[in-house]
Design brief:
Elements: E1 5-8, E2 13-18, H1 27-31, H2 51-58, E3 66-70, E4 84-87, E5 93-102, E6 108-117, H3 132-135, E7 157-161, E8 167-177, E9 184-191, H4 206-209
Parallel strand pairs: 4-8, 5-7
Antiparallel strand pairs: 1-2, 2-3, 4-5, 5-6, 7-8, 8-9
The chain binds iron/sulfur cluster and FE2/S2 (inorganic) cluster (FES).
FE2/S2 (inorganic) cluster binds at residues 165-166, 192-194, 196-197, 203-207.
């Protein structure tokens, strides 16, 4: 997993942007066009809005490409009490919560509150989404048609990118789609990241028969 982090310093708040995690969802540009202006260089100017507003919009970045560091004593980004996984139509899995991403050897790749995970199989920066789903015309419903067992407990969610196989979720989470469908709650699941499962977003074992590789031999 690679990073390409740019830093934009402001009076009250600094903004960092990991170019490799940005899939141009444009939440930032829509939220604060004076701060996030792709026609300007540098394209981020944290001083163009109040620190609270910058932090709030940064917290909407669904991939975790954006983060803030405050110098004004303002609140840090809060960690949601419930972990949610949203299956995007023709796109990635958006995870919001207390998330630790682990590789197949058990090494921690990152801890974050927001992350977008590849589920089409084409990202060059697995397990993160790099926007390749659009290049490969990935088509998959943003729907979850399997229920689960309600989980009362809260806590952190560990997601392991298994070698040549699915994403393994361990910890309480709610799984839903950006289309209508049944919501799933659980504390463990294997989610497809090869793009070929017939039971998406869940893994059905197809990754083995199509020779899916995650490139982390
Ligand atoms: S909200 Fe995040 S992913 Fe979307 S364009 Fe801005 S930085 Fe990129
Ligand atoms: S990862 Fe796609 S079927 Fe298992």
């Amino acid at each position: 997993m690679d990073q390409k982090i740019h830093e934009y310093e402001g009076e009250a708040v600094d903004v960092t942007w990991d170019q490799l995690r940005c899939i141009h969802a444009a939440e930032c540009v829509r939220g604060l066009p004076a701060v996030f202006d792709t026609d300007r260089r540098p394209w981020v100017d944290p001083d163009e809005a109040a620190a609270d507003a910058v932090a709030e919009v940064v917290g909407r970045c669904p991939t975790g490409a954006l983060h803030v560091e405050r110098h004004d004593g303002g609140p840090a980004e809060s960690v949601p009490e419930r972990n949610t996984v949203t299956v995007a139509t023709d796109g990635p899995l958006y995870v919001h919560g207390d998330v630790t991403l682990v590789d197949a050897d058990g090494d921690t790749l990152l801890r974050d509150t927001r992350v977008a995970l590849c589920r089409c199989g084409a990202s060059a920066n697995k397990p993160l989404c790099d926007g390749s789903h659009a290049d490969v015309d990935f088509e998959a419903a943003g729907r979850v048609e399997r229920g689960g067992d309600p989980v009362e407990e809260t806590g952190d969610l560990t997601i392991t990118g298994s070698r040549n196989g699915p994403l393994l979720l361990d910890g309480p989470f709610e799984l839903g789609g950006d289309e209508d469908g049944t919501g799933f709650e659980g504390s463990d699941a294997a989610l497809c990241r090869c793009g070929a499962s017939s039971t998406k977003p869940f893994c059905d074992g197809t990754h083995g028969s199509i020779g899916f590789t995650t490139g982390d031999e």
